[in-house]
């Protein structure tokens, strides 16, 4: 899930001159001298020059990279990822009803919705949107086990071969596409889409490798947004994006800024805002559990006890980006507070070097001077690796390196080539490194990504979708199955409690921070953004909820 990384690739100066022009002043912000209320919203991402492709299914497309696909293509139900346990907001579907222990769902499709080409959206389009995913493995990115897909009048019925309790939000949040256009594509999972047709309030106006512009449609099923035009600029790297935010050329972005208070917030203390709430996903030190002596859970538990999460949060994550994980279960709070088992409710991560040494001694390790030796007498060393350009992760590794020296582990930080790192992680040819997990409506997605034996592959075999640490535990796999297929909440709670205990006892990864869905934005021209007082949705411009944000924005002072 590369999309979770905040640190974008610094693509070598292909558009340096053009991008510099956009980041030296307000030249890209037509609101600066409009004289009246704002009409244009300038969105930026540090993702380098784009190739035109508006295919909403492709994570590599310009529409996904910059986030504008969500202004064109809409979901059946709008899910607030900050409150994933809440019932979603009806969108293209006015109602949805689950049955048969989440093996069936019935959607009632909204009347009066039109595509941007003027034709009506129908329940047939909705059924086709699911059928296309069922028939094309490359489009069924969440591996939903579809059964039957039927449509009658304004109703669409879906069945599944097993309970979809853990995937319900992924199904509800499916975006809808027009059958008339997509049935003509030869390979929908790969084809380039140059003429996107959606039900959203915007349509494509123009595209360049630097900037994609969307304009407001004449007709939309909801009240038309106040933002008349959206301009998505792809800056060459994090520095260019940060400069554009600081000087007002860019008004909304998702980018990691190490010294955010100085270089962004201080430039306009009244209007420059940072909001990065945590979600049910985590970042942490993944350990290759096939590599000795790190196959020993006592060693992993000892490592956990000396890692300083406060330093990682304040120094590596600039005190805002990935909120520190406090629960020993790895479940982020407050998003996951209600899931934490009673036995772990009050147990928090804390640096305790002496407890770590006791853990090691009990497992046959010996600290001789400043060197830890494993039960065979070999010094314990570890290579911590991440891509050189991922500054927050690399700083985290430097902190962890120093932390581990307190128990005699000699660590080396390897600043890797990004492509080589991805391959090494994918194939299990690494010792340890920072990585993220999947996230979802419950902690299931976190634990499944870390511990599921069904996605376990031997070292050397790539194509994994998780379990990068090659963690093998039959009890964990069984508990994951029991949770996903449970008949009631009591059974789900029992299974999740088991998974938490395995996490605490085995420590397959060492959690450090919660994932966030964050943003840096300006209230100078536009107000109505989500924040701590009104968290109606995550603020990241590349997420589906960005559509809801744009619909709520109003010109400042209006």
From TrEMBL:
Q: Which GO terms describe its molecular function?
A: peptide transmembrane transporter activity
Q: Residues of the signal sequence? A: 1-20
Residue ranges, compositional bias (Polar residues)? 48-58
Q: Which domain of life is it from?
A: Bacteria
**Xref: Gene3D superfamilies:** Dipeptide-binding Protein, Domain 1, Dipeptide-binding Protein, Domain 3, Periplasmic binding protein-like II
CC annotations in GO: ATP-binding cassette (ABC) transporter complex; periplasmic space
Q: Which residues form the Solute-binding protein family domain?
A: 89-447
An example GO biological process term is: peptide transport
Ribosomal protein as a keyword of this entry, yes or no, is: no
Q: Where is this region: Disordered?
A: 26-58
Query: Keywords in UniProt for this one?
Result: Signal
Q: Which CDD domains match?
A: PBP2_TmCBP_oligosaccharides_like
Q: Which SUPFAM superfamilies match?
A: Periplasmic binding protein-like II
Mind telling me which Pfam families this protein's record contains? SBP_bac_5
Which named protein is this?
Peptide/nickel transport system substrate-binding protein
Instruction: State the organism named in the record.
Output: Kribbella italica
């Amino acid at each position: 899930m590369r999309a979770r990384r905040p640190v974008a690739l610094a693509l070598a100066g292909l558009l340096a001159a053009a991008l510099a022009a956009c980041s030296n002043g307000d030249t890209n912000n037509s609101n600066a001298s409009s004289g009246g209320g704002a009409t244009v919203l300038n969105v930026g991402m540090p993702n380098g020059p784009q190739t035109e492709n508006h295919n909403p299914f492709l994570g590599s497309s310009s529409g996904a990279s910059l986030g504008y696909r969500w202004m064109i293509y809409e979901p059946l139900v709008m899910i607030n990822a900050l409150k994933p346990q809440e019932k979603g907001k009806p969108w293209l579907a006015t109602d949805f009803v689950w049955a048969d222990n989440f093996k069936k769902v019935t959607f009632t499709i909204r009347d009066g919705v039109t595509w941007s080409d003027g034709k009506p959206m129908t329940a047939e389009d909705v059924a086709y949107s699911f059928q296309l995913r069922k028939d094309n493995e490359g489009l069924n990115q969440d591996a939903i086990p579809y059964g039957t897909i039927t449509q009658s009048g304004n109703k669409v019925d879906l069945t599944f071969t097993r309970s979809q309790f853990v995937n319900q939000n992924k199904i509800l949040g499916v975006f809808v596409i027009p059958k008339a256009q997509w049935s003509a594509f030869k390979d929908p999972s790969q084809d380039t889409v140059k003429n996107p047709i959606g039900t959203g309030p915007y349509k494509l106006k123009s595209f360049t490798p630097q900037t994609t512009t969307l304009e407001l449609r004449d007709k939309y099923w909801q009240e038309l947004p106040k933002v008349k035009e959206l301009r998505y600029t792809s800056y060459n790297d994090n520095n260019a994006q940060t400069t554009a935010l600081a000087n007002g050329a860019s008004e909304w972005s998702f980018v990691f800024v190490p010294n955010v208070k100085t270089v962004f917030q201080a430039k306009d203390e009244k209007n420059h805002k940072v909001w990065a709430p945590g979600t049910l996903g985590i970042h942490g030190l993944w350990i290759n559990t096939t590599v000795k002596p790190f196959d020993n859970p006592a060693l992993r538990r000892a490592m956990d006890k000396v890692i300083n999460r406060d330093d990682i949060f304040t120094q590596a994550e600039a005190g805002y980006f990935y909120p520190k994980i406090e629960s020993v279960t790895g479940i982020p709070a407050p998003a996951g507070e209600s899931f934490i088992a009673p036995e772990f409710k009050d147990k928090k991560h804390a640096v305790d070097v002496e407890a770590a040494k006791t853990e090691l001694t009990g497992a046959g390790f010996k600290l001789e001077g400043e060197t830890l030796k494993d039960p065979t007498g070999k010094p314990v060393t570890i290579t911590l690796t991440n891509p050189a350009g991922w500054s927050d992760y690399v700083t985290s590794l430097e902190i962890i390196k120093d932390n581990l020296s307190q128990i005699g582990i000699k660590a080396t930080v390897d600043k890797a080539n990004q492509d080589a790192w991805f391959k090494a992680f994918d194939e299990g040819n690494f010792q340890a490194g920072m990585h993220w997990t999947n996230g979802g409506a419950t902690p299931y997605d976190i634990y499944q990504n870390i511990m599921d034996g069904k996605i376990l592959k031997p070292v050397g075999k790539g194509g994994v979708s998780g379990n990068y640490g090659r963690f093998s535990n039959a009890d964990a796999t069984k508990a994951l199955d029991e949770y996903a297929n449970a008949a009631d909440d009591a059974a789900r709670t029992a299974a999740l409690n088991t998974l938490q205990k395995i996490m605490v006892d085995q420590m397959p990864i060492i959690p450090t921070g919660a994932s966030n869905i964050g943003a840096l934005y300006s209230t100078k021209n536009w107000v109505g953004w989500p924040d701590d007082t009104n968290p109606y949705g995550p603020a990241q411009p590349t997420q589906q909820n960005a559509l809801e944000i744009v619909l709520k924005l109003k010109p400042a002072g209006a």
